[in-house]
Amino acid sequence: LSEKNEPEWLSEEVKTGTTILAIEFDGGVVLGSDSRVSAGASVVNRVMNKLSQLHDKIYCALSGSAADAQTIAEVVNYQLDVHSMEIGEDPQVRSAATLVRNISYKYKEELSAHLIVAGWDRRKGGQVYATLNGLLTRQPFAVGGSGSSYVYGFVDAEYRKGMSKEECQKFVVSTLSLAMNRDGSSGGVAYLVTIDEHCTEEKVILGNDLPTFYDQ
Amino acid sequence: MEKRCLDAQFKGVSTGVSKYNALNHHFYVSSKTINKVIQVHDRIFCCMAGSLADAQAVLKTAKFHLSFHSVQMESSPQVIAAASVLKELCYKNKDELQAGFITAGWDRKKGPQIYVVSLGGMLIKQEVTIGGSGSTYIYGYVDAKYRPNMSREECLQFATNALALAMGRDNVSGGVAHLVVITESGAEHTVVPGDKLPKFHDE
Asked: What ipTM was estimated for this complex?
């Protein structure tokens, strides 16, 4: 007689399987993510926004264990508020990334989440930081999550320095669409956040509005 | 033992493979220039993936069966015949073997064709296909860049770019790239050393 009469999604860990990416352009950044949350083979949320706000002009993209990633984002959000009150001005993107990195590194055995931190500040403009496993590195663009493996080739080929804001947005949407097509743990809709000096714009692109490729 | 295969169909077939031979998990490179594109008949080539020892043994047997078959039929074998021979061997011995193949070629009946024989012995026909450990990194690139009915030069460029991108990301793919173009008039094999491959933004 089998012990497991409960549905598998009650016992499987909830992961944001995911494809996330962030890219900087001159004057800002664009972040993108898919919206699928899976527990084993079940999709438990098909419209989750994985782009979490850390401060007015700093966002982070979540991947890995949903609980771990969300908690890190919430804790850093609080720490950033305190920090920005202490210094009396808006925090730098690097500060936010450092706070995320400190938690990821200190608790690296217990946590399994990877956050990409991106935003705009007055000193250095648009910046993207990767914090995988507790490292901190600034990159022109960063991809993460299970779906990212399938699009390394595409982003390597398509990325060029000096792209405009619109080209970056198009690049992010195409990359997300390709990854969502191939990765079983990524799917749903695409969320986009564009941050520059003047505004922070959040956008959703529904499934049927995503670009399609030759086999679709 | 890990590798990368890519086939794209134009009016002939271009087959690209990149070379690295690394023993299981210790990442010792035993050779940087192994050719994993083997000719099984005049206009039929096979790319190997998985355990190279298994793949070589299977291909040797398949070559024999195929040449016998072509003598019996008194004509060149069809590409699907070569693929089927591989499939039978892989499926019947699936418990012992760990090898997959991409069979590509040209025959008079159906022109250029590409068949994939996966690890367990599934056989399917495709227009474009990739395989091996490095292939995961270029699914996005291939999906985005492949268009049906490309010309020979476009296909070659596409295959070379895809191989270069995969070799750039996969630690067990690399060395040189072998490219074979198969058309009605025959097969041409070129080798592109690593430093002559296209470079992308981060190199």
From this structure: 0.81
